[in-house]
């Protein structure tokens, strides 16, 4: 575990450092893809849209994390005026949930489309591949911080965390964060392939790919903060919704030529 790294006489959280690095790399990828696939977009326009998406993702990720700890937050609300620093440490600093960020980013995407600042094809082609890349780098930060840890294991792959972190100390745990990182990076590579001829296919591939990845990795998560809703975690329910959306989009894209042919014949 490496929660902090010493830089310029200060202890810097590795999680935040990697999130910043992932965000910067995601921006560079978006600028590069815009130059290649959407040259009509200036670098300033690409950056502006990217920052809007990041802002929405961060707000959504924080709101979702507060929903998950809402009972504890309301029980400790008095800390807000009695000990505001402790309240900030418990409920404000850190604690970002990816699916909340994805929902927040999707809402910003809808606004961008309605306001006609960009087209769906531009959003899908330029920005979507950056999502699993940034997320995968962020998961390495989770691994270093000891959050989002896995279940106990007797496998040689088990990782033992020391005292003082989020994860249980002295117990070999599945490095589920790194599994998700590997899956995210594979998904990033797949989304960068120039094989998506129809608008919507890249989005469907992401929803199907990440939905399956997250549903599977959730089976090896050992932290209680992920929230349970019946037999599945909240993230697994959202993963099923993502998979269903991916199937619906794929089915529609496959059937659309037939529907058009019948309408023209009629």
Report the mean per-residue pLDDT as an integer. Answer: 87
Q: What structural class results from the helix and strand content?
A: mainly alpha
Beginning-to-end CA distance, first to last residue = 65 Å
- How much beta, percentage-wise? under 5%
Q: From the alpha-carbon coordinates, what is the Rg to the nearest angstrom?
A: 20 Å
Topology, number of strands: 4
* Relative helix content: 55-70%
Unreliably modeled segments: none
Q: Which descriptor suits the 3D outline?
A: globular
Secondary-structure element string? EEHHHHHHHHHHEEH
Supply the number of helical segments.
11
Which strand order do you get reading across the main beta sheet?
1-2
Give the biggest sheet: 2 strands, antiparallel
Features:
266 residues; 5% strand
Concise account of the structure shown:
It contains eleven helices and four strands. With 266 residues, it is mainly alpha-helical. It starts with a strand and ends with a helix.
